[in-house]
């Protein structure tokens, strides 16, 4: 990580009527870094992004791009792929891409060159004169992605970039996002696909009900929040399993039991402390995944108070 | 403003490339020409063959009368006859579209020329017969022994002619072309007024497309990506400018059709009546009218996602440009009356009513014009502000059409 801060979000807050949608949202995005903003539906991710983009105006806090404050931010240096996707249906792909490039003050000739290169890269070669209504949904998303990056932005904001994409297209997008970051573009993305976030992102910021619940590099989050979990297949009473030390929570489904363990647990020692009578047909011990952390937060099984911040 | 022009350019380019716009652009003047000419052509095609007319010319005057009818473009299939009347009438009963005219000394003295008609003679024949009235009257007067001068004086008759005071003064001051000058002055008001009216009509009609454009931008969910590059105000202003340009392109194309026809076909010196200082004010009024309605349509368009589910409220707003049609009757009968004045002050009717009044009034009521323009410009400012507030929130609201209550809430924000 180069460490040069491109985007700085500080104490951002936004309310609709009396309801706080986001509160005290603060993070930075550095040059060449991929930062993920995560959270369940309605957590406030898109609101945060819309406030950064200046599409909405925050009630509290500030957004800084390099040294530019809100209102003076040069929008042409930012690329944006909104969650609500759409393009002018009856217009050709090239016309749309050139229009968006022009809105970003990007030279037309260069934009045309880049558009053709990206269309070829995304398997849309020779389709520049095709109108959007003739494209499939996935192809349309590729065009939208190209529109977001055609002007070589310094900061790229992608709201749910992988939603609706097939696995092949997801791979293409993932690779392109990585390439852009390697070339120095600061990337902020929101996503529900935790496996992709784990593969792609350098840092993450998770929000729930408008507030931060955890943040840090992937390694930090894993270290601090990804506790061990022990899966046991066997005919065991809950009362018996509750006698095992350092168990925070138990989930049971028939003969399958999952024990969520406390962070400090030392697995070899812990196994020695098991009470007699526990039936084990199969046993496995893993770290909880980012996906599980996300689910726990989204379903309220892990609260803000129950989580230590990195 | 630079961003607004980028949007304007895009809207203009996008619509000019649109097939339905191109078709309507050329179809409108063609339809106009078709509607203006086809009824006449059909009327002519419906014309029956010429009436067969038997003439008994005891007066030896038919050759003179024939010239008069020729001048009136009346075409009869004439047969001179000396047959006895009873035989002719018998024959007439067996024929169709045939007439018999007996020009006899007795009939001339009595002042009653008998005309016998067979079946299926067009009504127009009776009107054509009126063309013979003057030569027959001259013949009557000749029989009385009057001189040619006396006959001329008598046939000229007496007419009453209204002369406006201003023209009377000009005539009294030795302007021999006073009446012609008056008519020219009138044309110098009507021609620019009509031109400004056509421009207002065209730009307001394309202005209605802003509604569709804003609504489409919502429906196609493209607004957010556009708004990441510019402000809602810039987007809104760009649309207004773009569709104004589109309206002007439409006017230009219509003019390309109209000017040659008017100038060469009708031999009417259009430009000498059109290019007058008054044109500037009339154009200003039509542009102001566009801005007013464009603000309404762009704001309203941002509240509608599904055109098929628009409420009565939105449909009623779309009818606003046609409001002047309600009061055009009283304004037509009295262009200086109270209703005409109220129509000039009320912003939604002001552009059309002002253009109409300034085209027909000989003296422009400057105080009324200034009050109307102040009210109109203030209304444009207010409507633009309101449209900006509605557009800003409405364009990003996906999924449903806004209710009047929601619109009111956005205005108050």
UniProtKB/TrEMBL annotation, chain A:
Keyword ATP-binding listed: yes
The name this protein goes by in its record: ABC transporter ATP-binding protein
Pfam families: ABC_tran, DrrA1-3_C
The keyword Ion transport is assigned to this record: no
Molecular function terms, GO-annotated: ATP binding
Entries under PROSITE patterns matching the protein: ABC_TRANSPORTER_2
Entry similarity comment: Belongs to the ABC transporter superfamily.
Keyword annotations from UniProtKB, A to Z: ATP-binding, Nucleotide-binding, Transport
Annotated InterPro entries: AAA+_ATPase, ABC_transporter-like_ATP-bd, ABC_transporter_ATP-binding, DrrA1/2-like_C, P-loop_NTPase
Lineage of the organism: Bacteria, Bacillati, Bacillota, Bacilli, Bacillales
Source species: Mesobacillus maritimus
Highest rank taxon of the organism: Bacteria
Ranges of residues in domain ABC transporter: 7-234
From TrEMBL, chain B:
InterPro entries: ABC-2_transporter_component (IPR051449), ABC2_TM (IPR013525)
Domain ABC-2 type transporter transmembrane intervals: 19-387
Protein name (database record): ABC transporter permease
Membrane-spanning parts: 21-42, 190-211, 240-266, 278-301, 364-384
Keywords: Cell membrane, Membrane, Transmembrane, Transmembrane helix
Its membrane topology: Multi-pass membrane protein
Keyword Transmembrane helix assigned: yes
Statement: the UniProt record of this protein carries the keyword Membrane: yes
Protein's cellular compartments: Cell membrane
């Amino acid at each position: 990580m180069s460490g040069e801060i491109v985007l700085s979000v500080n104490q951002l807050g936004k309310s609709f009527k009396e309801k706080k949608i986001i509160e005290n949202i603060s993070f930075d995005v550095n040059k060449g870094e991929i930062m993920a903003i995560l959270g369940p539906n309605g957590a406030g991710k898109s609101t945060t992004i819309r406030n950064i983009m200046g599409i909405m105006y925050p009630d509290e806090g500030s957004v800084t791009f390099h040294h530019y404050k809100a209102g003076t931010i040069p929008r042409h240096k930012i690329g944006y792929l909104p969650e609500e996707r759409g393009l002018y249906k009856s217009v050709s792909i090239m016309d749309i891409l050139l229009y968006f490039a022009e809105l970003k003050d990007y030279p037309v000739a260069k934009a045309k060159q880049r558009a053709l290169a990206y269309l070829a890269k995304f398997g849309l070669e020779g389709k520049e004169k095709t109108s959007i209504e003739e494209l499939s949904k996935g192809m349309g998303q590729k065009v939208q992605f190209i529109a977001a990056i055609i002007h070589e932005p310094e900061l790229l904001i992608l709201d749910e970039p992988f939603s609706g994409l097939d696995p092949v297209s997801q791979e293409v997008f993932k690779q392109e996002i990585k390439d852009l970051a390697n070339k120095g573009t600061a990337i902020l993305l929101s996503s529900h696909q935790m496996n992709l976030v784990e593969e792609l992102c350098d840092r993450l910021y998770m929000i729930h009900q408008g507030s931060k619940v955890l943040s840090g590099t992937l390694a930090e989050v894993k270290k601090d929040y990804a506790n061990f979990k022990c899966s046991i297949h066997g005919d065991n009473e809950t009362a018996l399993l509750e006698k095992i030390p350092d168990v925070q929570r138990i989930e049971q489904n028939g003969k399958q039991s999952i024990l969520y363990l406390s962070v400090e647990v030392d697995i070899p020692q812990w196994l020695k402390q098991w009470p007699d009578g526990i039936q084990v047909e199969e046993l496995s011990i893993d770290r909880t995944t980012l996906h599980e952390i996300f689910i726990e937060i989204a379903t309220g099984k892990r609260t803000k108070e129950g989580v230590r911040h990195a | 403003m630079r961003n607004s022009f980028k949007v304007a350019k895009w809207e203009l380019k996008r619509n000019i490339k649109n097939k339905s716009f191109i078709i309507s652009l050329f179809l409108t003047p063609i339809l106009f020409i078709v509607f203006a000419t086809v009824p006449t052509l059909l009327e002519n095609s419906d014309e029956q063959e010429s009436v067969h007319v038997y003439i008994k010319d005891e007066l030896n005057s038919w050759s003179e009368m024939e010239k008069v009818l020729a001048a009136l473009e009346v075409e009869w299939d004439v047969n001179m006859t000396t047959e006895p009347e009873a035989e002719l009438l018998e024959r007439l009963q067996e024929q169709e579209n045939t007439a018999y005219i007996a020009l006899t000394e007795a009939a001339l003295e009595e002042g009653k020329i008998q005309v016998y008609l067979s079946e299926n003679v067009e009504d127009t024949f009776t009107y054509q017969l009126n063309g013979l009235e003057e030569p027959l009257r001259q013949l009557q007067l000749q029989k009385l022994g009057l001189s040619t001068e006396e006959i001329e004086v008598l046939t000229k008759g007496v007419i009453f002619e209204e002369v406006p005071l201003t023209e009377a003064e000009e005539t009294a001051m030795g302007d021999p072309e006073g009446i012609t000058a008056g008519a020219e002055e009138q044309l110098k008001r009507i021609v620019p007024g009509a031109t400004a009216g056509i421009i207002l009509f065209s730009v307001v009609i394309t202005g209605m497309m802003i509604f569709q454009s804003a609504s489409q931008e919502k429906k196609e969910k493209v607004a957010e990506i556009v708004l990441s590059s510019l402000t809602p105000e810039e987007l809104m202003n760009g649309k207004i400018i773009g569709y104004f340009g589109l309206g002007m392109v439409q006017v230009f194309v219509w003019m390309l059709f109209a000017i040659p026809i008017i100038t060469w076909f009708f031999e009417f010196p259009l430009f000498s009546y059109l290019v007058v200082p008054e044109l500037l004010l009339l154009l200003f009024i039509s542009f102001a009218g566009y801005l007013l309605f464009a603000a309404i349509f762009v704001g309203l368009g941002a509240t509608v996602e599904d055109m098929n589910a628009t409420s009565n409220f939105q449909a009623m707003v779309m009818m606003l440009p046609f409001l002047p049609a309600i009061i055009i009757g009283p304004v037509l009968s009295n262009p200086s009356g109270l209703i005409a004045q109220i129509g000039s002050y009320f912003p939604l009717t002001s552009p059309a009513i002002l253009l109409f009044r300034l085209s027909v009034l000989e003296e422009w009521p400057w105080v009324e014009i200034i009050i109307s323009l102040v009210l109109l410009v203030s209304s444009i400012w207010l409507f633009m502000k309101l449209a900006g507030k509605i557009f800003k929130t409405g364009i990003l609201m996906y999924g449903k059409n806004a209710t009047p209550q929601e619109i009111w809430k956005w205005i108050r924000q």
